[in-house]
Design goal:
With about 600 residues, the protein is of the alpha/beta class. It has 23 helices and 12 strands.
Length: about 600
């Protein structure tokens, strides 16, 4: 039996035993607060640990859920179960507005923005008469179901435990899906994800919203368990504590939320008793201990405590259950010799610097065209102009008769241009199969809710089957279940090609695929490129390795200082005095 299933069964058994055995009520209370806190931290695991978006405002969304339910149950007499839905709706509206504004920021601006609106919501709660200002609201009714009180003690413990386990399970399902791969790609930057067809801002707002909803649910439970609310548990300091719990447990691991909250809550209670005895005076000395602990965790265990457990648990190899899945539909391919890509006098200026100066060339279907030139010639800039990573200053690019200049990288990818990157961009902690399946993102449609409820399995099998087919196509069928971060440079480059092929491109754009490869790896790459051409694939190749481009390319476009020096066959380029002068600095 799978050890993970055994672990789940053991955990459920422990929860039931705690509820029925004569465990002290104090511990039941502690476990209830641990469950409430874990729900809020689960949102941070998804948002910060997986998606790479740092937020210190999670506690504010806990407050929205708590105050909404408190106000409506006291003043409007509504059922707590109805106020839960209203609180989630209000949280959704707030998260969408705040996410749309702040998630376009990057670097240190994003966490600063979350601090800003976290403080604003905290002071808003503390200054509204209707919410009791800083004194808060009292006499909040507890939870009941079919006339039975479930708002305290062991029954409440079973409720919170069920919600926590459901949250962990749903996030685990989410990360093992098409949507999950897109979310995990956000952390490595938007350029690669957008080029795979991922709408990055949509997914950023989506996980921000999902994290806020977890927090709102936590606040609803808190209000009806505590039976009172005030602004103190929803301030920025508590938001920072939530982040500490996530980092302590393992911010990149779903189970890290439960571990981090449990350790923090239990340790805080013990330190509040022990430290005054040791020091001889009362005070919040546990904050000092937690500060030192955070420094030690960041220094010696940056992946958190759960990472040590995760390394000990045998990795379950994904069962290949997609053999009978239907093949994905493919786009109509151009006929051999058809004009595929037409680059017309494209120009790119960065201030007063002209990086690309009126470059023109064409690619016919079935050709391999090489774009070469010395360092700084403007090859990669031209490449990024074609793929939509950079905007044109002037000129035009048409693909299969349709103008694509001015479109985003994601929209261009949907037209049928697949690409790799000069510096390999992959997700190291995903398998080779999962990384390649990311390339098929725009060929699927199932979203976050389908993934969390496991209604996406049929589509998921078709995507994984396509990923396996592309890996086998380029000779990497033996690497399916290897972690991508463990690959050597050669297989990493091939992984990127397989990922690009997974998007079903009509034109493949390869940015220095031979960079960093050894001789045998280059020979393997050459064979892959020849095989792809035999299968009808058209390729635009940016490369410094002259032996490789002379061997595989039909025609070469030579650039120097942002201008087109010449275009011709490999033989014509080799015999050109201008090309030798550009590379060697002399015509002799």
């Amino acid at each position: 039996m799978d050890i993970r299933r055994i672990g789940w069964a053991a955990l459920v058994t422990v929860i039931i035993l705690i509820a029925v055995l004569p465990v002290p009520e104090f511990w039941i209370t502690q476990l209830n607060y641990i469950g409430i806190g874990t729900l809020a931290v689960l949102g941070l695991i998804l948002l910060t640990g997986v998606g790479g978006l740092t937020s210190f405002g999670q506690a504010a969304f806990v407050g929205i859920g708590a105050y909404t339910s408190a106000y409506l149950t006291i003043n409007a007499g509504l059922s707590p179960w109805l106020t839960l839905l209203i609180g989630l709706a209000l949280t959704t509206a707030s998260a969408l507005v705040l996410g749309w504004i702040t998630l376009r920021m990057s670097g240190h601006y994003l966490p600063l923005a979350t601090l800003g609106w976290g403080l604003s919501l905290y002071y808003l709660m503390g200054n509204m008469d209707a919410l009791g200002k800083y004194d808060g609201m009292l006499n909040i009714p507890g939870l009941s179901l079919w006339g039975r009180d479930i708002g305290h003690g062991r029954v409440f413990f079973l409720l919170t435990s069920a919600l926590v386990l459901l949250g962990i399970l749903s996030l685990t399902f989410l990360l093992d899906s098409r949507a999950g791969r897109a979310i995990r790609a956000l952390k490595s930057g938007s350029q690669m994800a957008e080029s795979m067809g991922v709408n990055t801002i949509r997914f950023k707002i989506g996980i921000f919203l999902l994290a806020a909803l977890f927090a709102s649910l936590s606040g609803w439970l808190y209000a009806h368990y505590q039976r009172s609310v005030n602004p103190s548990p929803f301030g920025v300091q508590i938001g920072i504590e939530y982040m500490f719990m996530a980092v302590l447990g393992g911010v990149g691991h779903v189970w890290g939320a439960l571990v981090g909250v449990t350790i923090t809550k239990l340790l805080a209670d013990q330190l509040q008793v022990l430290l005054p005895r040791l020091i001889g005076t009362s005070g919040s000395y546990e904050s000092i201990v937690f500060g030192v602990l955070l420094v030690l965790i960041l220094k010696y265990a940056p992946d958190g405590i759960w990472a040590f457990v995760d390394r000990k648990v045998p990795k379950r190899q994904r069962a290949a259950d997609w053999e009978d899945a239907p093949a994905l539909a493919e786009r109509a391919k151009p006929a051999t010799g058809e004009l595929l890509l037409d680059v017309k006098a494209v120009r790119k200026e960065f201030g007063g610097l002209i990086a690309v100066n009126d470059i023109s060339f064409q690619i016919m279907a079935g050709q391999i065209i090489g774009l070469i030139g010395p360092n700084g010639a403007g090859k990669s800039t031209t490449f990024n102009l074609v793929t939509g990573v950079l905007g044109l200053t002037r000129g035009a690019v048409t693909f299969r008769g349709e103008t694509i200049s001015g479109l985003s990288a994601r929209e261009i990818a949907r037209k049928g241009l697949g690409r790799t990157f000069q510096h390999v961009k992959m997700i190291p902690d995903m398998t080779v199969l999962e990384n390649v399946a990311l390339g098929a993102h725009m060929r699927g449609h199932k979203g976050v809710l389908s993934a969390m409820t496991r209604l996406d399995r049929a589509e998921e099998q078709t995507l994984l089957k396509e990923a396996q087919r592309q890996l086998e196509r380029i000779g990497m069928g033996d690497y399916l279940h290897d972690m991508a971060g463990n690959l050597a440079m050669g297989p990493q480059r091939l992984l990127e090609i397989a990922r690009a092929l997974c998007s079903d491109p009509a034109l493949l754009l390869l940015d220095e695929p031979a960079a960093g490869l050894r001789h045998k790896e280059k020979q393997a790459l050459i064979e892959v490129l020849r095989q792809l051409q035999r299968e009808g694939m058209s390729i635009l190749l940016v490369e410094h390795d002259m032996d490789l481009v002379m061997d595989v390319c039909d025609r070469l476009v030579v650039m120097e200082f942002g201008t087109r020096l010449m275009e011709g066959t490999p033989r014509e380029v080799q015999q050109s005095p201008e090309v030798r002068a550009a590379y060697l600095g002399t015509e002799h």
